[in-house]
Amino acid sequence: MTTIVIGAGLAGLSLAIALQDAGRSVRVLDKGRGPGGRCSTRRSPVGLFDHGAPLLHDLPQDLIERYSQHLSVSRDGHLPVPSINALPKAMAEGLDVRLDCRVTGLFETSGHWRVETEDGTHEASTVALCLPAPQVAQLLPPDVAEHFDAPPMSPQWSLMYCAPAMADGPTRRMLTAGHSATRQNDLERRDASGDERWVVHADLDWSAANVDLDRNAAQDALVNALRSEIELADPTHVAIHRWLYARTIQPMGAPYFWSATGGLGAAGDWCIGPNAGDAIASGRALAERILGAKEG
């Protein structure tokens, strides 16, 4: 029977690839419109904004070689090209990935798992939850959830700002408030045409303190922070996004979570660290556990 992977971020895709490469049947479900999780790119009338993860750190060498045409070395990490979601899109090729598929319930019946979604039911012998830890806790059956202590994760606000070019300046800027600003036009193998497109990733402490701030108020605060330090014209486009679970604060300290009842596990960067490479390592480790369970 099929293994169901819930979540098409780097952990879930890495897990699914490992299972499929081993000859297993696997299906990936994700509520989003595209794979990638926080490796997300926002399309807009003025161009693309990498408003999720700004850079990928600690990628394993074999993955770098396998997807070299989609990666560019950048500072101390790798930048997928031509947008941050190019890597998960490439990883999803050849997999059975069901998008716009929101999971609503998870139930064990007669030795297998029933995954309920808004569009129907999926049957599986094994289920892997590759989601932010708080969302894993929400989906786990109560008798399993009582043994799962979700590691804390920080939210983060992201601002997307476009305006006519004013003057040359640095591609990246750390703002006084701790926010980081990146001019998208200047990033490796990006579309450099048109007006300047900026993404501001808000400081994590500021984001946590203002997680429930009205969206317009959060947008105004980040626009003011950006324009107070960088000379920019009035915007031709501006948008805001709140990531509720953007960064692992304290990892679980184990490569994956595995239910004592068997057939149910969870993986993500929250298991071992905050970086993209940690998510991939966690997904692969859970795949090994699933393969071992089936062989045993």
UniProtKB/TrEMBL annotation:
Gene3D superfamilies per the UniProt record, alphabetical: 3.90.660.10, FAD/NAD(P)-binding domain
EC number: 1.6.3.5
Domain Amine oxidase: 84-291
Keywords linked to the UniProt accession: Oxidoreductase
A Pfam family matched in the record: Amino_oxidase
InterPro entries: Amino_oxidase, FAD/NAD-bd_sf
GO MF annotations in UniProt: oxidoreductase activity
Catalytic EC class: oxidoreductase
Protein's name according to its UniProt entry: Renalase
Organism, scientific name: Pontivivens insulae
